[in-house]
């Protein structure tokens, strides 16, 4: 069975299939923040969405990071390692050179177990 959460104009924020959650691209609302700040804001949004769907960051399976500022990867990694326990790191891909909306330094998609 497929369950869709939080409908929008062009997509649902979370799609659930069986015990797997797919969370679409998340970006920071405050574009004045640096990479670390935008990542921290996104992680807060992700925590909320995971909780809404009955999961948590400890159940992340895969994370794809699209970065418009590859040279700021260290800032992202600092936020990442503060947010996640290394025992629960998911697989991840960090893709640089992404063309994102103005002021957006990073966008994240995730897959998590329920």
UniProtKB/TrEMBL annotation:
SUPFAM superfamilies assigned to the protein according to its UniProt record, in alphabetical order: YjgF-like (SSF55298)
InterPro entries assigned: RidA_CS, RutC-like_sf, YjgF/YER057c/UK114, YoaB-like
Keywords per UniProt: Plasmid
Source domain of life: Bacteria
PROSITE patterns, alphabetized: UPF0076
Similarity field: Belongs to the RutC family.
Protein name: Putative translation initiation inhibitor, yjgF family
Species per Swiss-Prot/TrEMBL record: Salipiger abyssi
């Amino acid at each position: 069975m497929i369950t869709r959460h939080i409908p929008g104009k062009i997509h649902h924020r979370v799609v659930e299939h069986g015990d797997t959650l797919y969370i679409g691209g998340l970006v920071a609302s405050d574009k004045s923040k640096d990479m670390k700040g935008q990542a921290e804001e996104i992680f807060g949004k992700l925590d909320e969405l995971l909780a809404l769907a009955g999961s948590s960051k400890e159940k992340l399976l895969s994370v794809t990071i699209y970065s418009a500022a590859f040279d700021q990867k260290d800032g992202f990694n600092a936020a990442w390692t503060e947010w996640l326990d290394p025992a629960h790191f998911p697989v991840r891909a960090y893709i640089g050179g992404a063309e994102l909306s103005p002021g957006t330094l990073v966008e994240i998609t995730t897959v998590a177990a329920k």
